[in-house]
């Protein structure tokens, strides 16, 4: 018999031990551990659970029951009842929280079942009894209804995925995360309804004793996957039911568990089994590869070789990192799959073709986080876009970082669609027209962390923040706004006052904080990230309540974010409260007013269309009115004449505004187009004239960055 067959036999034996044959109503059975009739069970009401879905509570599960307890005297005296109290009783079964007879009896029950448990003294309260309700040496009778239970092995609390057994413990303490790549060995088994025996449906990657290791399923863990939805990018993933995906987040490396998976947790379009109500899965987590999103989701950092658990530090801003190897490849590589049977040779064949740069073997490659990437040193090989991924590595870890080619090598928003090239020191190059992605592979040997902000002196903080601001400004000038924001954000970590700095240093830190927030807001304006603009400008205004640039940028963002009341207040502060405004302040404030007026008018026009159309479609007529014949043109004319006559009579009297009626000699109202330029029409002329953006010049200035100069203080 092979080990796989022995394990299947073990499953059958385990299933028999854990099962309790279903009883018929009125049947009585001995459920005592010694089969001495110390606890007998009589079925009063069966469970409604289908026979092939039957499960019983296990030791350690929390159960919820209703019960009524009676003495076996002539009067069948009732001594306790949760039914009378109207509150079910909850306890942990099988751990001695209740009398032994209850532990044994309740673990044979199914959800919704009602039975009569008769417990002899040695399975109840013994020779002492429980005075005054229960006399010594009393045999007790309990009518028990099992309402529900919660199992630690019921992974999601609804019976969809149950851990039947933990066959082998795993290594360490880490478990996979959503998006990680996993390799598993798996076998699906079905419990035959006729015989109750287990039979194998399908298996992959589980080797018998003495056999070579088999290739398992390699797929990306997807905890947000929808039931029955096919994974088009990875065939292995479509063979793994959703319930197994969810359960794997609790596995450790090398761990083997047996899972019972049911219903919606089971269905998969391309699964190598039929649509059963439930299947058993024996799963071994062979290994997994940790994947993290970086650069606002544009790139990925994937661990190829884990660092020792004792190496827990990661590089920070300013850290010096020593790599034993740095390689750069064209395209989106997948070195994480290495180690699988059959993959090694294929990867090595493709490696030479796509490799564009490799550090010299045996030589250390040193890189400083946050260093200048415009020089001809190692920093010109490792682009700053890699830094977020490097800062998540640990010493002795090997990782790959995949980035879009245009993002990695510094394309600006104005260069969108143009060819971007990067030439390395060996003369080889990568072009965005040849490949949309670039892959870096780093082997980190060691690293020396820079001082953390809390350990720096005030002057050191100023120096570090100045350096980061300067680096951010360089990115801003190249229109690489996301990278500029990252530098400004890092700089802000060093400009929090601690109350212990000298006045001169504290003032420098305050000025740097203002400058960094304003520059971040300028980047956010370029990206139309209005909320981030407001947040950063508010931080400036906490320090300098009348800062012109902060007020202007905040008002701009509030207008575009459709916060019109807030924008009006900000503009008012800019116009009325700022003393000694700059020469351009008045003109910029006027532009903001015009933009606000236009936006509000456009919004009113949209609202009119939306709500006008809504009300026009409402059925406001009675059935009699709906059945009326349409009026003729002559009848419509008579109705209009009557209405105008009545209106004229009303306005001659006291019904007009102010009670004074209408002045017959008053001039007629001016047409809209003849109104003077300073007339407050609230944007009506613009709204009536066009449906398009009327301030193209202002929009162009915003996009080109005019009146948005960076802080250099």
Task: Provide structural commentary.
- With 713 residues, the protein is α+β, with helices and mostly antiparallel strands.
- Helix content is 31%, strand content 21%.
- The protein is built from 18 helices and 22 strands.
- The chain has helices at 3-18, 82-85, 100-106, 242-247, 344-354, 387-390, 405-408, 458-477, 481-492, 503-526, 530-543, 548-560, 564-576, 585-616, 623-626, 633-652, 684-689, 696-704, and strands spanning 28-30, 39-45, 62-71, 78-81, 89-92, 114-119, 140-150, 161-168, 181-191, 198-204, 217-220, 256-262, 278-289, 291-294, 299-305, 320-330, 355-358, 365-368, 398-404, 421-423, 429-431, 437-448.
- The strands form 4 sheets. Strands 1, 2, 3, 4, 5, 6 and 7 form a 7-stranded antiparallel sheet that branches.
- The longest helix has 32 residues, at 585-616.
- The chain is extended and about 105 Å long.
- The relative contact order is 0.05.
Could you list some keywords that capture this structure?
single chain, 713 residues, alpha+beta, seven-stranded antiparallel sheet, 18 helices, 22 strands, disordered N terminus
